Amino acid sequence: MSEESQVQIGITDEQQPKRPIRLGFALVIGPACWLGPYVGVSATLLPAKIGQLAPADKVGLVAAASAIAMTVATIANIIAGAFSDVTQTKHGKRTPWIVINSILSAICMVGLSMAKSVTVLLVIWGVYQAVLNAVVAPMIAQISDRVAPKWRGTISSFYGMGMAFGNYGSGIIASQFIGPSAISTGMQILATFAFVGGLLSAYLAKEPSNLDQPKAKFDAATIKQNFMFPTKGAKDYYLALIGKLMMVTGQYVIVGYQLYIFTDYMKLSKGATSSSIATMSAILMVTGIIFTALAGPIADHMHRLKAPVALTTILLGVGAFFPFLSDKPWTMFAYAVIAGIGMGAYNAVDQALNVAVLPNPETAAKDLGIINMANTLGQVFGPLIAAVVISSMGYRAMFPVETAICVVCGLLIMMIKKVK
Questions:
Q1: CA-CA distance, 382 to 210, in Å (whole number)?
Q2: CATH number of the domain at 230-419, please?
Q3: CA Rg, the chain, in Å?
Q4: Is 233 left (phi over 0), alpha (psi -120 to 50) or beta?
Q5: Which of 209, 251, 193, 240 is closest to 95 using CA atoms?
Q6: Tens of pLDDT along 30-41?
Q7: In the chain, where are the structural domains located?
Q8: What angle do CA 403, 173, 350 make, to 5 degrees?
Q9: Among 131, 211, 333, 335, which residue's beta carbon has the most beta carbons within 10 A?
Q10: Which helix (H) or strand (E) holds 372?
Q11: What's the predicted TM-score (pTM) here?
Q12: What is the pLDDT of the chain when averaged over all its residues?
């Protein structure tokens, strides 16, 4: 059966004897071009713009932006995923959501670049979170829809490489636009990536029509199945969800305040900060891409998902301890090496693990949207926790906090039963 004609709710190993490489490339470009603009803005350009508009309140306002993101993303991820599961068009059920909301997310980023007050900035930031998460949930559901179990580690590696490009490449780009007169330009450049990348990913994925599938009836049973949190056979699912939430939370304890770590904790000048962020991002990107490419196929060969996810999460915590030892830039570069290895390997197999613990493949986008909600919430909780720690104990204390969070996360992942 060809990749274009496969059934949307999941296929078997026998139905897909060859790797779906075209879909794999779509899942490199897709996450690179939604995550890259998001991280570039949230981790660097948004704090820089907040610092420009309200320098005296910047730490608290970054935390407020995170709280807004948490509230909106929590709702949007679940609702968009659920509606995507029951969408029927000649372009399939995922493509319309990816295309329309990629365009809207680019428009929102242009709006952020033009905001003249903190209030307007935060309102647009909230709208952006809604449309962004309506891209994320349908996009990742394609792994469940169209990838046979034997290839999920490999295709998850493709997705992980896209996340590495987005997560770390964005820092290289954003670091060039920290200056007050350049922040808006940086946001507009990242908006272009979101627009072009979303459309290109959808084109390469070439999702087939699903008009021949039975239409979902909107009765009480359908609403319960498609719009509620899963309740049956979902213990491993929730362990994976909580584990992911803690891992991303731990990561963003540092990422959410990396600009201020260099300027306020390490006391670097603006030029040195820009150079250090670019160097750190380059290290994270290179190590992340290499280990993402290696880990997925190895996991497929070994038929193991749980242990790699747990161990790489703990490795991220080990890297986070280095800046605690010294307030010199080399410790952040050491963190970048170790975290890049850990995050690369994690991203390679994490999505395959998430698909493996799904309670029901027919509600894949909704259930993966809930797990992705953990990704979004972690990006919110991390800066919130960091803000509390920084305010009460100073910058140095935030690093062992990340280490502890990541270790607990690894232990939770190892408690999953039905996945090796």
A1: 39
A2: 1.20.1250.20
A3: 20
A4: left
A5: 209
A6: 999 999 999 899
A7: 19-227, 230-419
A8: 40
A9: 335
A10: helix 364-393
A11: 0.72
A12: 84
Question: Is residue 74 scored above 90 in pLDDT?
Answer: no
Backbone angles phi, psi at 61, to 5 degrees: -70, -35
Quick one: 99 exposed, middle or buried, by C-beta within 10 A (0-12, 13-18, 19+)? middle
* Same fold: 19-227 with 230-419: yes
Cα 237 to Cα 229: distance, rounded to the nearest angstrom? 11
Distance between CA atoms of residues 206 and 306, nearest Å: 31
The string of pLDDT tens digits covering residues 171-184 is: 778 888 887 789 99
Ranges of beta strands (E only) in 218-371 are: none
Give 226's pLDDT tier (boundaries 50, 70, 90): low
What is the average pLDDT across 375-392? 84
- With beta carbons less than 8 A apart as the criterion, state whether 27 and 143 touch: yes
φ, ψ of residue 181 in degrees (nearest 5): -85, -10
User: pLDDT digit string (tens) for 293-350?
Assistant: 887 777 777 777 788 888 888 888 899 889 999 989 999 999 999 988 888 888 777 7
Q: Which amino acid type is present at position 296?
A: G
For 217, which DSSP code? P
Question: Tokens for 256?
Answer: 């959410």
Strands (E), 82-185: none
Nearest to 105 by CA among 42, 168, 56: 42
Q: How far apart (Å, rounded) are the C-alpha atoms in residues 46 and 42?
A: 5
Nearest to residue 228, comparing CAs of 357, 112, 102, 79?
Answer: 79
* Gap between the Cα atoms of 420 and 409, Å rounded: 17
